């Protein structure tokens, strides 16, 4: 009789625990909805965990926008060095409200402040300014960057920008239109090549084809009386992972309600308040980016007729992406380089520097909110931003080496917890990530053509009728009835049937009796949850396969491709960016000027030419923060009036790198001419210290150092 009695006791224990968890879980949902309702009534809701002051209100600009520039006020006890490069964190306006980049102390804003750099934030209001466009936002961002630079005239380097998701491609557009303003650009989970991806893994890129293009976006804008509801975008994100949306997220809170309440409510503060966009803004995004994929091939023009060409960007671009990101896979984060450049030589000649890192597993939101990511990748990028800014043009991968690993040479030269190396890569490394073949490109081009046709039909025949039947009241009613918002309102203070849930929850907390972890009914609950997750995962796989198969079949049909003009002999499937004669002329002039300076310069030019010469060896195709730290230390030993600015140092690096590219042998043969009036012993010792900071040289690198020593001593 002992076993049945024990089982009955365990059943009662589980029943009590499950009932109490149900009450507490309902209370968590009630608090979530009630807090969300309160934020809806705020003028400028946000989730920033830092105090700030507004520097520029974008609504006061000549081209007003709902964006603002804010200075982050450092917490008490945190010292900020105004001589350091300022950072600007730009939050994504992709349906959610602002603040994700500073929602926690361990965040992008947090690591910038911890490093002692001035930090600014670009956020936005829930509703756009009437008539506001994406181009207006880019112009406002340019003025914000200019203002930050003005406020820090003595800073080492131009302001660095961190753009999350949608903000990433937006700051790239701004930098392309105003390349003289910004320093390095950090793109975190930012899609720039929307068609890119691999079959079986990236279904989000097919969504435009399911509805025949972007006419549904126009319909949503018309029904919203000129406004587009960000809840549509957030719902699309959620539909990507039905197991997490419909079960795992809620179940995890229910099963761990005693410990997960705070974390859940903090995240839902950001997730639960979708913002609005002007219909013109979202139409620009869907036409030119989601379906048209026009940003990476340079076919977008501003109102003045200027082409938005990403090759105009002169600042280094840091791309942070992850294999676990189902919203912005690595192919979409990096594929724009393959659209811009045929080969590595063209990229180097164009003066473009790109650093990328591929995380193994972190998801899309984790790139912005994960404390582990903030304390590793974002922290290290912040600390090494000056080194990134002076890297010679080319493609690099950031490699993070734990300082505690055995055999790490001179770990004390690295500031953070890791030693960071920027190792040279080539464009073939990006091609190896996977991508579309010509037939896939033809399918996406078919969607783009069909979208233009359907958009024209909608604008001509349906849009006038829809606009005549809608007004601001009907648009507001539709927004309030959106399923995304209803689920919050049903569990909130707007539901009178839940008015006593908080009192009941307090009573439950006072009498809380959790079940023991080995309770068999608790284990059955977990097993049932796993079965539900598995079923939803199977549904997701089948759904995604069906979507992909429909897309491939429908848009791969020769008849449809013929009707939209993509089977003609002159049809251009892969729309690569065109040549820019003006740019090529500037590059040619720069190379000619560099060639004239082959035998000109002094100690700085000689030392940098020697360093770059050694670094061009196969073993040394990397920039190491330990070498840069050594260079910095040598600089600090000089009298203040002899210290070179970072901007001047960057100019010398670029010039000497170009000279070596033009003719390495002639450049090295001319090296002694640069040393005519130089303390050669001191200069050579500096070269040795810098090049051996990360360890002994071997092979070709050692041979090149020996040659440099001979030239310095000749």
State the gist of this model.
Pfam families: DUF3141. The protein has 714 residues and is an alpha/beta fold.
Task: Give an account of the 3D structure.
Among the domains are: 52-214 and 278-433, Rossmann fold (3-Layer(aba) Sandwich); 581-713, no CATH class. It is 53% helix and 10% strand. It has 31 helices and 13 strands. The strands form 2 sheets. It has an 11-stranded mixed β-sheet with strand order 1-2-4-3-5-6-9-10-11-12-13, with helices on both faces. Strands 7-8 form a two-stranded antiparallel sheet. It is globular, with a radius of gyration of 29 Å. The model has no long low-confidence stretch (mean pLDDT 92).
Provide the fold topology.
Layout: H1 2-40, E1 51-57, E2 67-73, E3 87-90, H2 108-114, E4 119-124, H3 134-151, E5 160-164, H4 166-177, E6 185-188, H5 207-210, H6 215-223, E7 227-229, H7 230-239, H8 242-255, H9 257-271, E8 276-278, H10 279-291, E9 317-322, H11 330-334, H12 336-340, H13 344-349, E10 353-359, H14 366-369, H15 371-383, H16 385-389, E11 394-402, E12 418-425, H17 427-431, H18 438-469, H19 472-480, H20 483-490, H21 501-510, H22 520-555, H23 558-563, H24 581-596, H25 603-615, E13 622-624, H26 625-637, H27 646-662, H28 664-669, H29 671-674, H30 680-691, H31 699-713
Parallel strand pairs: 3-4, 3-5, 5-6, 6-9, 9-10, 10-11
Antiparallel strand pairs: 1-2, 2-4, 7-8, 11-12, 12-13
